[in-house]
Write a structure and sequence with these properties.
The structure holds 2 protein chains of 2 kinds. Chain A is an alpha/beta fold. Helix content of chain A is 35%, strand content 22%. Chain A contains 8 helices and 9 strands. Chain A has a 6-stranded mixed sheet, with helices on both faces. In chain A, strands 2-1-4 form a 3-stranded antiparallel sheet, with helices on one face. In chain A, β6, α5 and β7 form a beta-alpha-beta unit. Chain B is an all-alpha fold. Chain B has a single domain, classed as MetI-like fold. In chain B, 74% of the residues lie in helices and 1% in strands. The two termini of chain B are 29 Å apart. The mean pLDDT of chain B is 90. The chains are: A alpha/beta, B mainly alpha. Bound molecules: adenosine-5'-diphosphate (ADP) and magnesium ion. Magnesium ion binds next to α1 of chain A.
Chain lengths: 272, 277
């Protein structure tokens, strides 16, 4: 596995564009906690090409969420810069799927999924079409008119996945979106995500604490160090696509890279 | 559950028998609700009959009921009640609407909060009724001054509840709105208002209670109608039986307005887990 990003667009047969979709340079974030400062992430450099699927793994508390929130413009960095290229200003640039439950309790599931489109004033017929599609894809069509408190945690998480997809952004920022799901639902949604992604060619940054998940989904897997989080090592994953979750797990190469990543993460958590 | 020898624990389903009359009575909340007042009335009646309560201040409930029928028959009390309700409602709306608007503005913007909250906090402790003479100077002794004093009292209740409601909205929902690029107005409409709605309703309940207190006092001045006026009037002519009838009507009005707001709340907030039954 090389860490050379120049071949990541081979699938499309295009040569890589001069400017990456997302360009991160020297990014750092410190939080003030009382009188002390907590350095969450430090000196992060990252280039993500348009249409690429990046997975980030790292020990908990290493700053993964912080990095994503900065990319989503929900948090300002204390150092460095992020440049994102927007190809169509009439479409939303990025949508975030939050780690914790972020479905609005006062709206039905249907209105939650429609939220982004409604705010943008998309015509009702178009909203309905898109919302119906993603409700069906996430298996929530029968719960469209239910309120969130009537749904399980996993279903709410699926609704927030549907909400982000329905909004049709150029970049999806996904913060451990499937962590709360059971094994079967997780595998189904992973395959669904890959299918939608291959259709729509969105740029995805996907955070997970599951090495298997990262290997199943990503073009590249980036391992973060413990706090303050830096990008430690990068693996280029070129299992052929379309990938099927359980076929892939039987591949010996899958186990080999998985072990390598696990060794790195272990060093970060317990020291070498 | 019975615990037997050698620590065998047995859990059995309760015997399925039809509810006894006593069970049914216990379950009827209406019956339970009127039991205590009924008991008080009976004791009261007995105490006046045997002369332990002074009839001049606490006329026998039976004689109050006689007055009640007389007053209801004349129909006048309903006109008075309507005036009182009207003053309450007008004042309530003029107080609650700005209360909600300011509560949301201050709740969403730390800058506006820093700017306006000290002023509001300084005015809040002034007993509202102490402002009434000033209000009458400004608005005259007619209806406007009554609406104004009720509005002022309602404003503070609704304002503080709304503010607390907005400030307590989970930050994640603000992040969601911001991530989906909600405008300021969309943030109010889709996050701040629905998120604070349970608190807003609590404020309205406190507010309507306050409105009734204020309106009854205010009706002592510059008016010839209203339940408050009738109470003050019956004091002047020492008509205690009538006074009790008016007090009863005021308390029914208070109870009814609370129930109306509760009903409205249940209709408007369908997403809450059904905790209020
Ligand atoms: N708003 C904040 N204020 C103070 N500290 C924060 C804040 N957000 C995150 N942190 C700290 O930054 C570090 C990284 O947090 P986070 O990005 O959530 O980690 P991860 O998502 O990798 O588990 C943690 O030590 C956390 O306590
Ligand atoms: Mg996190």
């Amino acid at each position: 596995m090389s860490s050379d990003p120049s071949t990541t667009l081979d699938r499309t047969g295009l040569s890589p564009p001069a400017f990456p979709k997302i360009r991160v340079r020297g990014l750092g974030k410190r939080f003030q906690v009382g009188k002390a400062w907590v350095e969450a992430i430090k000196a992060i450099d990252l280039d993500v090409q348009a249409g690429e699927f990046i997975c980030i793994v790292g020990p908990s508390g290493c700053g993964k969420t912080t990095l994503l929130r900065i990319l989503a413009d929900l948090e300002a960095p204390t150092e460095g810069e992020v440049t994102i290229e927007q190809s169509d200003p009439s479409n939303p640039l990025s949508s975030m799927i939050f780690q914790e439950s972020s479905i609005l309790p006062w709206m039905s599931i249907r209105r939650n999924v429609a939220y982004g489109l409604e705010l943008r004033g998309v015509p009702a017929a178009e909203i309905d079409k898109s919302v119906d599609r993603f409700l069906a894809l996430t298996g929530l069509d029968r719960f469209a008119d239910a309120y969130p408190h009537q749904l399980s945690g996993g279903m709410k998480q699926r609704a927030s996945v549907a909400r982000a997809f329905a909004n049709n952004p150029e970049i999806l920022l996904m913060d451990e979106p499937f962590a709360a799901l059971d094994e079967q639902n997780k595998a189904l949604l992973q395959e669904e995500l890959l299918r939608i992604w291959s259709e729509t060619r969105k740029t995805v940054i996907f955070i997970t604490h599951s090495i298997d998940e990262a290997l199943v989904l990503g073009d590249r897997v980036i391992v973060m160090s413990r706090r303050p989080g830096r990008l430690k090592t990068e693996f280029k994953i070129d299992f052929p696509r379309p990938r099927r979750v359980y076929d892939l797990k039987a591949n010996p190469e899958f186990g080999r890279i998985g072990r390598e990543i696990w060794t790195l993460l272990r060093e970060e958590v317990v020291g070498p | 559950m019975t615990v037997q020898a050698r620590s065998l624990v047995q859990i059995t389903a309760p015997r399925q028998t039809g509810p006894t009359l006593l069970d049914r009575m216990r379950r009827s909340s209406l019956l339970m609700a009127i039991l205590a007042p009924l008991a008080i009335l009976i004791v009261w009646e007995c105490l006046t009959r045997v002369g332990l309560l002074d009839q001049r201040f606490f006329p026998a409930p039976s004689s109050i009921i006689v007055s009640l029928f007389a007053l209801v028959e004349s129909g006048r009390v309903f006109i008075d009640a309507a005036w009182t309700i009207g003053r309450m409602l007008v004042g309530f709306v003029f107080g609650a609407v700005p209360g909600i608007v300011f509560g949301i503005m201050l709740g969403l913007s730390p800058t506006v909060r820093a700017f306006l909250q000290p002023v509001i906090a300084a005015l809040y402790p002034v007993p509202k009724i102490a402002l009434f003479p000033l209000i009458m100077m400004i608005f005259g002794i007619g209806e406007a001054s009554k609406w104004a004093i009720v509005a002022i009292a309602v404003f503070f209740q609704v304002f503080y509840s709304t503010l607390a409601g907005v400030v307590n909205i989970d930050r994640i929902y603000l992040d969601v709105a911001s991530n989906f690029k909600a405008t300021r107005w969309q943030l109010c409409r889709t996050i701040a208002i629905p998120g604070a709605l349970p608190f807003i309703f609590t404020g309205c309940q406190l507010g309507i209670g306050m409105a009734l207190v204020i309106v009854v006092i205010a009706e002592n001045f510059g008016t010839q109608v209203g339940l408050g006026y009738l109470i003050w009037q019956s004091w002047q002519v020492f008509e205690v039986r009538d006074m009790f009838v008016y007090l009863l009507m005021v308390s029914l009005l208070g109870y009814g307005s609370q129930m109306a707001i509760l009903r409205l709340q249940r209709a408007v907030i369908p997403w809450k887990k059904d905790d209020a039954g």
